[in-house]
Amino acid sequence: MPTPQHRLADAVVTVLDRDGHPLAHTDVVVAQQRHEFLFGNIGFDLVGLANEDEPARAEVSALADLWLDVFNAATLPFYWGTFEPVRGAPATDRLLRAARWFADRGVAVKGHPLAWHTVGAPWLLDLTTDEIADVQDARIRREVADFAGVIDTWDVINEVVIMPVFDKEPNGLTRLAWDRGRIPTIRLAFDAARQTNPSATLLLNDFDMSTAYECLIEGVLEAGIRVDALGLQSHMHQGYWGEEKTLAILDRFARFGLPLHLTETTLLSGELMPPHIEDLNDHQVASWPSTPEGEARQADEVERHYRTLVGHPAVQAATYWGITDDGAWLGAPGGLVRADGTPKPAYDALRALVKDEWWLAPTTVRTSAAGCLPVRGFRGTYSVDGVPFELAGDREVVVRLGG
Q: pLDDT at position 162, please?
């Protein structure tokens, strides 16, 4: 498959010495430091490491090394029911330490989600609908303010298509969405986040890839609610979508003119979930192992899926939902690392794309008589002898060494 040209950029870099003079006929090292495209994964498994929890620090440290070697964007858990199970006692400090741990390592951090009907705070059930609206508004403002500057990207509200009619468990948000409607509930959430951090990147996120989500998006945009990116979930527990279906979905949602974030992707390395299951949560099995045949299939599908996403100009981010099978969602073998900590072929396949085929390794280049050198590569952050610059388009760049 050819390299997606829209991801590439060219620049003529002029290298200056510490006195501002062109550094002529000199060998320098050009290297890529970071992709502009957001290759994400959940950071749930590393929250304990960031907070120096015990036990198994050595194993988690090794997992962190695998995580950081591929991914540059982390999603952290803000499920209200686990973030604030007791009203007035949120886990702010713990999540803030985790967010800073990632940010200190050059990783962009997103919070997920600010509003959702599942994993809800149990104490919401004791409140009236108006009270739920008030505390939801206050909750969003608190989190967006407390984490501003560390987390400036949020899945603001999650799975609103099903929210008013969700019947798996009682919760406050379903009652709010049923009483006030989907779009007013979305407006409440987005207004609270936008007013608190006007420069934040705010997503509407859903698993429903049907026309129902398209109709909701149309209504939201017609109502004047500003959405910065659309979140599309792709949990493929029942089998890989394939390139044709994936591209059709991307094209359908790209018509809104907003960046697309594939917020939750999984591909299994074991037995697939039966096709008759409508709600993935309904599939409960005692054991769900990864298999050699499944791992080979997963590696092939991960490579094909990421090539498809990176090849589509509307896609800005792709977040894989789990680094490891240990504690994976629904117990499914969807991780890129086995429960024993060893990488699966899918991990190696994705790393080969992100850090090899789509990456400029340190390369020695000699400057011209004018101190110039050409650089071509995937958009992102690069460096000359350790001094960073952005490769973001066809332009001229000046790098000053030793300044």
A: 98
